[in-house]
Amino acid sequence: MNALLEVKDVGKRYGTVVALRDVSTVVNAGEVTCVLGDNGAGKSTLIKILAGVHQHDEGEFLVEGAPVRFASPREALDRGIATVYQDLAVVPLMSVWRNFFLGSEPTVGFGPFRALDRRKGRELTKKALAEMGIDLRDVEQPVGTLSGGERQCVAIARAIHFGAKVLILDEPTAALGVKQAGVVLKYVAQARDRGLGVVLITHNPHHAYPVADRFLLLKRGAALGSYEKTEIDLPELTRQMAGGAELEALEHELRQAEAS
User: Fold this and answer.
1) pLDDT at residue number 200
2) What are the C-alpha distances in Å from 126 to residues 122, 136, 226, 237?
3) Which residue of 33, 130, 147, 252 sits 20 to 30 Å from the alpha carbon of 114, by its own alpha carbon?
4) Is a pLDDT exceeding 80 seen at residue 175?
């Protein structure tokens, strides 16, 4: 069976700047692929290629085994690839249910006589959130009154409701406390268990490790390593993220210099 998404030796340049080079990974249904790296590692560039914002210059990008080159995010969305960015693209003063649909609201009537079907919108939103285990007392409340974790969960439920096969989450836990981050990770696991392929972008190995099936470590636009969960434990993942291998190489060089 073909992977939902696969990139093979993908590269991206902006003029003379190499933003990404020779990066490969795979996203399977019912699994979480975690992309780890510090600022400037190339995570954003990789997301933008997967989400159809930018096109790759080198390598291959496959969706369910077929090579693609998206011209826009709409094309990616039409192929079932939904991206939830860190800023969430919500309207804080608008109700939860209006944010849930945002441009795809249910209507009643025909032609110029169409009007918003508020009751149906509220019911569908409550049902979709409840299926994810999210219990909101009032979907009429402004989305800005929700916690950061709850807003992330609404965005995840929205993507699933509108038929996403692949869910790309850009640093969903970055601005959250421990408890809220745990809530978001629970819904990431739920999306995975419902058969979606999830791409989780983060710089925190402690958030990544409990839910991920594989890890892609990026540094300065290149892959530092690619591992299945069975191949790496949390201490080693953390050490690599912290540049442990580079520090060891530096220590070795310094010792050699002292010896000579």
Assistant:
1) 94
2) 6, 7, 39, 38
3) 130
4) no
DSSP state of 85: -
The residues spanned by each domain of the chain are 5-93+163-259
- Predicted structure pTM score: 0.84
Residue 73 near residue 51 (C-beta atoms within 8 A):
yes
Helix/strand/coil for 168: strand
Angle at 167 between CA 234 and CA 5, to 5 degrees: 85
Query: Which among 196, 132, 144, 201 has a CA at the least distance from the CA of 173?
Result: 201
Q: What CATH number is given for 5-93+163-259 in this structure?
A: 3.40.50.300
pLDDT in tens, 31-89: 999 999 888 888 989 999 999 999 999 999 999 999 999 999 889 989 999 988 876 66
